[in-house]
Amino acid sequence: MSNTRLDERGRLTLPKEIRERYGERYHIVELHDGIKLIPVADNPLDALRDEFADVEKSATELRDEAREAALDEAGR
């Protein structure tokens, strides 16, 4: 973990090790107790394809399963 601060123009500089590991583009998410930086891939679609390369179900099957699980959890 490292510390950094905003400059006079409100910019935040991330340490070189962080930029090398996670890249240079981030999505900022505001949480109730702070913020979170989520790395954004240069090509998000390729990143998603890589992440789900081993999933054998179709998007429709995954969506239907998620819908059923949400309904069950809501006490259908």
TrEMBL record:
Which keywords appear in this protein's UniProt record, sorted alphabetically? Answer: Plasmid
Reading the lineage from the top rank, the first entry is Archaea
Instruction: Identify a single GO molecular function assigned to this protein.
Output: DNA binding
Looking at the record, the residues that make up the SpoVT-AbrB domain are 4-45
**Name of the protein in question:** SpoVT-AbrB domain-containing protein
What phylogenetic lineage does the species belong to? Archaea, Methanobacteriati, Methanobacteriota, Stenosarchaea group, Halobacteria
